[in-house]
Design goal:
Layout lengths: L4 H68 L1 H9 L4 H14 L3 E8 L15 H13 L15 E9 L2 E9 L2 H10 L4 E7 L5 E5 L2 E2 L12 H5 L1 E6 L6 E6 L1 H42 L3 H32 L4 H31 L8 E4 H11 L1 H6 L3 E6 L7 E4 L1 H18 L5 E9 L2 E8 L19 H6 L9 H11 L3 E7 L3 E9 L1
Parallel strand pairs: 10-12
Antiparallel strand pairs: 1-3, 2-3, 4-5, 4-8, 5-6, 7-8, 9-11, 12-13, 13-15, 14-15
Helix pairs in contact: 1-5, 1-7, 7-8, 7-9, 8-9, 9-14, 10-12, 12-14
Length: 521
Amino acid sequence: MTIPHSFRYKFLPLILTFIFVGSILYFHASQRLDDFKQYQSTLSTTSSIGLANQVKYIINEKKRLVALFANQNADLLKQYAFNHESEALYREISNRIKKVFPDYFAFTITDAKGNPYPPDFDNFIGDLCISDIKKFHDKDNHLPRIHPNMHQYHYDIISKINHKTFNAILLISFSPKNISELIKNIQLPNHQLMLVRKTDNLLIEVFEQGARNKLSRNNYNFSEDEQNHILSSHPIEGTDWHSIDMFNDALFTNNKIDILNQSFIIIIMLLIVMVMSFYFIQKLFKANKKLAHEQEKQDFIATISHELRSPLTSINGSLQLIYNITSNNEKTQNLAKIGIQGCSRILRLINNLLDSYKLKTNELSIYIQPTNIIEVIQSAVDEMQSYAESYQSTLTFNNNTDKETIIANVDPERIIQVLINLISNAIKYGSKHDHVSVSIHMQKNKVRIEVTDHGPGIPLKDQNTVFEKFSDTTTKSYTAHTSSAGLGLSISKNIISRHNGIINFISQEKTGTTFYIILPL
């Protein structure tokens, strides 16, 4: 089956639009995912370093206090070392330790070479404890680690007892509960903080629920998959531990789902705007060529404009909602803002088409009333500030009359419409990073309003047709990427004329253009 060439060409722009928008959203989604990964990596590094510093402080403080306790209680410890069968001495030492260290688990005393004085019949002090004491004797240094024990997994702090003729070693064992509480407080959502021993094939030591024996697993070493989930690792000075932060699968899975959902909503909205714009504007300009009679053309414009306004208003509202609910995501807001600006441009085109139709049929309404012209100008300038920012331009209002109130008999909404048209043209066709100024001057019993840009100006050969309907002189003269239906200035001239005023311009190529309005007071 052969597809007709007319069918292919008719839908080619639509297909290209889908591909273009899809590519933008794919790039945007990929960039957002990369940014999220980088952000989580930064958070992970911060939390793992924070945990390492806190654990370092806890261990160093315990070492300091154990050494202080050993020296302050050397006489009592010496008595117990040589009379270790005394329950009273044991309880006295235990009570004193508990006052300083509520989380202590057990203690023992050895000679200077690491040989225990009291026998450990209850198996509170295991082989690893004795091994660490002997290493401490040999190297005068001790790196805490988790010791398995039938009563409780624990870590040890060791200190020398140097007092007169009694030289010995004091070992106090501690529960890792305070460290696990610290991990729980620092740990981020969908992250998992742990203390591990890298020297023992990434052996898990402590996590948020306690020592490794609280885990429901047989092998306490990191699996290959767990190693691939590590985001950051930091050594803990003075221990045999590293603080490690891993991500859970849900962390990036949930983020991907959120990005896909937001991208789907945005692409649907943007495509609706693009497809409707493409379809109706194509029909509109084709109609300009095909309709033979002016009345038929005006009726067609009015019908199409009315049918376009309602759905575009709804789409604009939806995009505004997306813009408002994604305040924490600048890139999503930028895409929504592009859609909002597109809708706004099309709505302005529709309003101009309708006004043009009303001018043709003498149905354009003007409601004259006493109005403060200063407030009217200020309202128009305020409304166009965000539009100026989107072009990276500045917009200011200069009151050169020294008056806060100037009353003129005008239709305020129509004058604002004219000013917005002049200001938007100045912003669009001005120079890059232009400064567009709006000023007001008194001329006897009249007021003169000027809108000035510093763009390329309007060529002399085109200046006679600027106010003609469907003239696009400004577009041809200024930029190639800005589109216009050529109705705004024609409508503005008609509105000012019905106010018994004057609208004109002064333009110099490569210097800029000033449009001015003169209204009677």
